[in-house]
């Protein structure tokens, strides 16, 4: 499986809104999230996938992705293999802290197959 790249600040697109294209990823697939200076945070990066408010309820408020790798300007993270995520649109955010303070990197939406 190829990595799905999510640019920082990707516009929010509601599923089936016709307002743009939401990237698709499978459970277990890698996502690449662009985040400025994320490498300065070292191991202090947390990537969380949140259910989209416009999607059907999943019963999950957020999933912490634990399989990740950080490089300059980019976080690689594996979509958790939770069956409950299938056929849902999730919002991907990275949270990290460096000498400049706390940061949130918004990767936008991804539809899990």
TrEMBL record:
This is Secreted protein. It comes from the Bacteria. Residues 1-27 are annotated as: Disordered.
């Amino acid at each position: 499986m190829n990595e799905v790249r999510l640019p920082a600040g990707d516009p929010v697109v509601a599923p089936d809104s016709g307002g743009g294209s939401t990237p698709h990823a499978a459970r277990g697939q890698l996502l690449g999230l662009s985040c400025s200076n994320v490498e300065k945070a070292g191991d202090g990066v947390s990537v969380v996938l949140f259910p989209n408010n416009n999607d059907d309820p999943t019963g999950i408020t957020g999933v912490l992705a634990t399989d990740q790798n950080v490089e300059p300007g980019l976080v690689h993270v594996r979509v958790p293999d939770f069956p409950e995520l299938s056929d849902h649109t999730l919002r991907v955010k990275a949270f990290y802290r460096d000498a400049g303070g706390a940061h949130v990197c918004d990767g936008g939406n991804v539809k899990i197959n």
